[in-house]
Design goal:
Shape: elongated
Order of helices and strands: HHHEEHHEHEEHE
Number of strands: 6
Helix content: 55-70%
Radius of gyration: 24 Å
Strand order of the largest sheet: 4-5-3-6
Structural class: alpha+beta
Largest sheet: 4 strands, antiparallel
Number of helices: 7
Length: 217
């Protein structure tokens, strides 16, 4: 094997690939913008740049951190690309933060901080998975949800608006229109999981069929 590609370097690169894949799989299963391949490549690339930075400084002289230091502004550029503004809300903050942390994990692997990188990955998975579940169950996590209510015969737009207010929900982009099947009301709202369930229950009790679609989780 070439002197610049030994088993130890290969092992570190493979570890970065696996750690990035573990987090990326969680993001992929939740249909997030930065998924499996993105997190794999970010972690792998950060590890590789850190190794190159160290090896070049050792072989040619210079600062061991010079190349690695440029990873942070580069990752900031990528993270900004997944943050978008839609319907008055900012989306992708968690994905951008995940990318930032994955880069740091890749750098830790490249710097031979093996156990630190593994521990950081486990903590990141706990934050993304288990804390997300806990937030939903306790009603801490706000999601931007699109509602579509189909009014039954005799139902009015005012009655739907009153039910939404009674549930403590502030509607956005309220739009009512008439179709062949009757009146349809569309609106967006930032709600917790309990609020969404309560509102759906109230609308069902009023004989109003309602469909939802999560815009931002």
């Amino acid at each position: 094997m070439p002197h610049d590609l030994n088993a130890y370097i290969v092992g570190r690169l493979m570890l970065a690939f696996v750690l990035g894949g573990a987090v990326g799989l969680e993001r992929e299963l939740r249909h997030k913008p930065a998924g499996l391949r993105t997190n794999m490549l970010i972690c792998f690339g950060s590890a590789l740049f850190t190794i190159i930075s160290y090896e070049m400084a050792g072989n040619m002289g210079g600062d061991h951190t010079r190349i690695a230091a440029q990873i942070i502004p580069g990752i900031g550029f990528i993270g900004a690309g997944v943050v978008i503004r839609d319907r008055g809300s900012v989306m992708g903050i968690t994905s951008a933060a995940t990318i930032f942390v994955m880069a740091s994990i890749g750098m830790a692997v490249g710097a031979n901080m093996i156990f630190t990188s593994i521990f950081a990955t486990l903590l990141l998975l706990v934050a993304l998975t288990f804390l997300g579940i806990l937030e939903d169950r306790l009603g801490w996590h706000m999601r931007l949800v699109s509602f579509r209510a189909s009014l039954s015969p005799g139902g009015t737009v005012e009655s739907v608006h009153q039910l939404v207010q009674d549930a403590g929900v502030e509607p956005r982009h309220w739009q009512a229109r008439k179709t062949d099947a009757g009146m349809v009301v569309d609106f967006d709202a930032e709600v917790t999981t309990p609020q969404e369930r309560e509102l759906l229950s109230k609308l069902s009790a009023a004989h109003t069929h309602c469909e939802t679609r999560t815009i931002r989780d």
